[in-house]
Write a structure and sequence with these properties.
The protein is of the alpha+beta class. Helix content is 21%, strand content 25%. Strands 1, 2, 3, 4, 5 and 6 form a 6-stranded antiparallel sheet that branches. The protein starts with 27 loop residues before the first strand and ends with a helix.
């Protein structure tokens, strides 16, 4: 990894039904944020959780410069690396039981602003899930 990749956070994952809170800087979005810049609507799906996870994994695996780091039945963690400078963003997806939604957190490891990259990423994934019929 390059100098601009930063260090992988050790405190990611689901704790008490929550993903890590976004930082105070405007370079992250979270569906569990309670307001302001960071707030984004969770992803929705209509079929089974297993099928939604399979579709989500396929979307991520077919995205350039992306690597799935961890998967569990209700959680997926991926790293997105920018093509030009090698900045890394940590992106998490959490499927709460019986909810038909996917909570998301997408955050830059370094820097202050992401120029909307994390929000755009999640909205692109949302559109691809809808397109796939998830």
């Amino acid at each position: 990894m390059g100098l601009l990749s930063g260090k992988r956070p050790a405190d990611l994952g689901v704790k008490n039904g929550n993903l890590k809170a976004p930082p105070s800087s405007p370079n992250a979005v979270s569906s569990q944020a309670t307001g302001g810049y960071h707030q984004i609507v969770p992803l929705a799906y209509g079929g089974s959780q297993e099928q939604a996870m399979k579709t989500l994994k396929a979307i991520i695996e077919n995205t350039p410069n992306t690597r799935i780091v961890e998967t569990k039945p209700d959680y997926l963690y991926a790293e997105y690396t920018s093509a030009l400078m090698g900045f890394v963003d940590d992106v998490e997806f959490y499927f709460p039981a019986n909810a038909k939604i996917i909570h998301v957190r997408s955050a830059s490891r370094l820097g202050h602003s992401d120029l909307g990259a994390n929000r755009k990423r999640i909205e692109t994934i949302r559109a691809r899930l809808v397109q796939a019929g998830a």
